[in-house]
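Blinded run. Sample ID left blank on purpose so nobody reads anything into the name before looking at the predicted structure. Input follows.
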Amino acid sequence: MNILYDDVANAVKWISSFGGLEQGGTTRLLYTSEWLDAQNALKDKMTEIGMESYFDDIGNLYGRFEGSKYPDQIIMSGSHVDTVVNGGKLDGQLGIIAALLAMEYLKKHYGQPLRTLELISMAEEEGSRFPYVFWGSKNVFAIANHQDVESIEDSNGIKFVDAMKACGFKFNTKPARDDIKAFLEIHIEQGGVLEKEQKSIGVVTSIVGQRRYNIRLIGEANHAGTTPMGYRKDAVYAFSRICNESIDKALKVGDPLVLTFGHVEPVPNVVNVVPGEVLFTIDCRHTDKTELVAFTQQLETDMLRIAAELGLEIEINRWMDEDPIPMDDKLIKMLEQICQKEQLSYRVMHSGAGHDSQIFAPFVPTAMLFVPSIKGISHNTAEDTKTEDLVEGIKALTYALYQLAYQE
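Blinded prediction complete.
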């Protein structure tokens, strides 16, 4: 299969120019001019290669090669077109470019597919402009709640609804899609496993479940010089106990459990006052729901115990509780067989980050492919992947789309 190195490199460079930054990377936020320019340019590109292209109500973009025998059976591939602020050149948009190149190749070399090939460039996944995630994929299945976005604003006070309307879109009025036979998404790993193991492709088995917390420890602020150690209600000390014990337990459990204390805010956060409060976050992830629930329940019990031992109050707000999402077993097996047959360097792995595939998977057979991230870097202007690895990933995707759309 002749997926050309230069074609891949040029396609990445082209899509990255919409919202491209001087220092490299991309900022392309939902319903901005950069976002709209990218979607319109992709629509033109789809039309140029012979696809029927169209937008849905909220701005998801689709391109289709109609199936000759089973036009109502959709084989879909793509990803999200939005980025984080000061993001890279591959996160999300690789999945769009890869599907475009793969489908163009298949149409050119094998003609009309038996089943319809459909490319999707999803409006949003990241939640970087507005505090809402998976707007694009949730609308594919009519599970986005309009009330959740009607009153939200970006950092400049622009309302979600106003930004959407300014780009020519509106709330979804269509029912959930029920014609998608399979969905494949290719994405950068956003971690360092594939690079360290010198593999070009990851076949994803599941997307981790996540529990996230906002925690408030309430002690007593007091003078740093005149308050004896035994009389203190030091919120930072309580936090340090919680952090230390929790991470030690996470290390004992081991992979694939991960635990992160990502944001810590002592109050009043000055040199000469015993801190009376600490606000902090916890992010815990695991591929197994039972293990995730058991570990986080123990975590909550430990926090209550430590706060009580030190005479502090604690407020625990678990604001995210997402179950792990398995990928489709048949598609996983198909991808493994393709990699083996075509001698593509691969490993089976899970995804430690969230993706649009986790929205698709409960509704349609879904699978994911990863390609390596150099130094594991993502959500950063330095985000990159060797072009030869991109080519290998697109080859795997092309073989899979051929098998699904062209074979009985």
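Unblinding after everyone has recorded impressions. The mean pLDDT is 96.
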